[in-house]
Structure formats: structure tokens, C-alpha cells
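Readers of this paper often ask what the protein records in our data store actually look like. The remainder of this section carries one protein's record, kept here as part of the documentation.

:::
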Amino acid sequence: MHEIITLQLGHQANYLGTHFWNTQESYFTYAEDASPSPVDHNIHFRPGIGADAGETFTPRTLIYDLKGGFGSMKKINALYEMEQGSDAGIPQGLWDKGTTIHREPLVETIEYQRTLDAALPSARLEPASVRYWSDFNKVFYHPRSSIQLNQYDLSSKIMPFESFDMGRDLFNQLNREHDLLDRDFRLFAEECDQMQGVQIFTSAEDAWGGFAAEYVAALRDEYSKTGIMTWGLQDFERVSREKQINHTVNLAYTLSNIVPLTSLYVPLGCPQPKLPGYINLDPALQWHKSALLSVAVETCTLPTRLRDSFSAGRLGKLDDLASLFNANGGQKIASLSMTVHNPNPSTSKLCKPSASDEEFGLSWDLGGNEFNGIAERPQGVQGHESHIFAIAKVVRASNDDRARILVTADASELPSGRHDAIFERYLTSFTYPIIDSFPSIFSTDRIIPVEDTAAEDQRLAVSTKLTTSSQVIPRLKSIKNVVSRVVGVDEREAILNDLGEFIEGFETGWNSGSDDNDD
């Protein structure tokens, strides 16, 4: 069946994961005369039995967040809850005095969730009403999917969950007490007939990077041959220089520990100044930023969950996708870019026809030499044409739109004269659905007009491109330069060596690096 288990580590990752699962839920078909969905739900969803002995279908996911991070979402939801007395769970006999129960005040459920619970038409979501990722969640999860870490509070000013070491120590503490893989992960893994891999959404610039690093190490020890695809979330917003440096150091530790053990690592973030004019999002809202990222992540991984995944070639399985990019053994970091196509470019009012299909990066390949807000001038690739090792492109558009997209894209897909790069492409008419939990971040000229349908049936023509290329070298050198200045000598050499090996992996076979003036 080739199942995929998802790990969501941290509040930022759970925003992305919620959009992802809402989209997967929209692919289910319930009408008896409806055509079967092209998506194989068994890959990401698990069958089960609810409290009423009815069949359930819940995501194969583990959701980790800090105390207060789940908002109004219940651990035991309507699929599994049973009526219990007010005194349930209180032992009697050893204590004959009265008991007083103190409960923290519950987070109020917003109107959108109340209408979902009552099976009424969904209330409109407004930016001010989305306080947590659970506020726009449309999916029921298995009770064992949600794991709250009570050792830290969300957004605590006294003890913020910010440093890599804090996350690493927390994982090790919990693992000693509970064996997290045995308590949390193994239930989902043992239900799989033939697990094809694990996808991980995690913050990369804070303590969740340390938590994720230890989790990946434990997974690799236990499941040595399983593909692991890691999405490392970063925030490209400008903050104080001290905070920028802390983020970069955390990121360096995250890369040093995760990249050698994962099958493929994709840095992910929203570079607001680099976004095209047809995108209008509020950079202060995780609901907005994660929505944009979710379109790219869901699209580029679409072939791994389709019923006809055998026709997707090397894009149809996580392991095959990772081996495509890492053909030479040293390219485990990929860049992600996306285009939201104009279904009628000749009538666009916002973009000239020639610029209607503008591609934008959601990773490090953003142009220029600025990384995470820290201006650097790394040496090594200036004066060299970018070398591309592999490209995996997924195009979701109607037949007519695909013809136009491919005509304009083919000429510039690979640098002229370069025939050694690996290129894989998957084409489908299965466009991206815009559902009621998705914010209005795209201009109306990007929405595919669908006649005689409700607003929730609107769709997008999208193409994504995962690329391994030498363009990651300046970003790695920017991180390396920061580490060499601020990390203590005890750990500095190990991180610099790891980052140096990553850089060499992207230089091998085309650039010896002998001209570099690197440290």
C-alpha cells in the first residue's frame, strides 16, 4: 500500500500540517455516483473503529506542540469520545475526604468550528478569528496523534522554547521516560502494510530543530532503510540582529544533525519581498504564510499519493524521489519554487502576459546573497554558471493550460548546453482545490473559473519545481561564516566540518572549489 507517516513538530509546522490535511480531506468523495478520487487515501489515512463501533478514517500523523498550542481542539474528539461521569478517573477508598478539581480555563471555540461541529454551512474565516492552527482544522485525528509537551508553554516570555539544545534535551528526557518511538510512532508504523517513508514538518531555527534532530536519529536507528523527507521551516522576516544570529546558529545545528540522516531536506519559508504581485498575504499571519507553503508542498508531493503513482515514474515514491536528487551521493538539500498560473493570461489586469506565470522561490534559492536577513558575501560560486544536478517538476493544470505552460517553460528549464542534469516531470489535470479553510491570498485572476459551482469548488493551476543545484552553496557558506564567529570552539569544528561536507557535495564533479576564498 506504500503508506506515508507524517510528523508535525512545533506550532509553525502544525499550521502547515493543518492546511495539508484539510486539502487531503477535500479529496474524499461521498456521493454514491461520484467518480473515485485520483488520490489513494490509504497512503496518508488509516482505517479504524470509533467509540460507536463505526468505521473511521484518520490521518497517519503525529502532532507535537507545546502546552497551550492546541487551542480549542480536544484530544478525544467526536469519533472516539464516550459519555463519562463527572467523577470518572478519581480513585476512591484511599482518600475519604472531599476532592477539589482545578481546571485551566478552556479556549473558546470559534464560530467556524461550531458550524463544522453542527454540520452547518461553514462560517467565514477572518484573519482576526484564527488564533491557533486548530481554529481552521477540518479533520478528526486519532487520540494518539496529538501529543502535548507540558514542559514548556507556547509563547512563554520567561522560558521560551528557542534554542537547539532545549529541544534536544527535551526529546532525550521524554525518550528516557517513555521511549517516544515505542509510545507514539510504532502504533502507526505497525499498521502499515508497506511503509514507503516518513515526511517531517518541523521548525528549523528554534528548539524544534533539536527535537527533530533527535527524532530523526531515533527513526534512522530503528528504520534504517525507510525514506525520510524533512521540510525545515524558516521565517524570513527581519528581526533584531541578535535574534537573526541565534536563528542562524540553531539552523546550523539542525542542518548538521538532520541532513546526514534524512533522505532529502527542503528548507521552506515565505520570502515576502520576493513574492509576485498576484499574492497578497499578511506576513504577520501564520495562517496566510502556511497556506502558501502548503500549496507548494502538497503539489510537489502529489505523485506519491495518486492511485496511478506507477505512472509518475521516479516521483511516485519518497525513496525514488530522494534518490533522484541524491544521484551523486552528496546532494541532500533541495530548493523549492512554485508558479500559480493565470488561466487567462491575455486578460490579466495585474500582470503583463509575459509575466503572468512568474516563478518564485520558497527555499534558499531566492536570488542575491542575503540569508535569513544577515547580509553576507560568500565566495565560491560568483562568476560560475549555476550547476543543476536534478529537477523534479509537477504541473497541475487543464490540458490547454498545460500546453501553454510547457511551451513557455521548456526553453528555460535547463541551462543551455547542460545535458547531464536529471529531469523528471509529472503532468496532471488534477488542479489544486481552494476550500473554505484557505485564506484569500491569491488575486481573482489566478482562480480557475468553474461555472455553476459554489465558491469552495474553486481551483488553482499550479506547478512546482524541486531542484538540487549549486545555488545552495552561498547559503551554506553564509551559515558557515556566522558559525565560525559565534559558536564556541568545543562544537564549532564539528559543525563547520559538516557544513563543509555539504558544500563539497554540491561542488563535486563540476567545481573543485580551488578558487574559493572560504574560511
Summary: The mean pLDDT is 83.
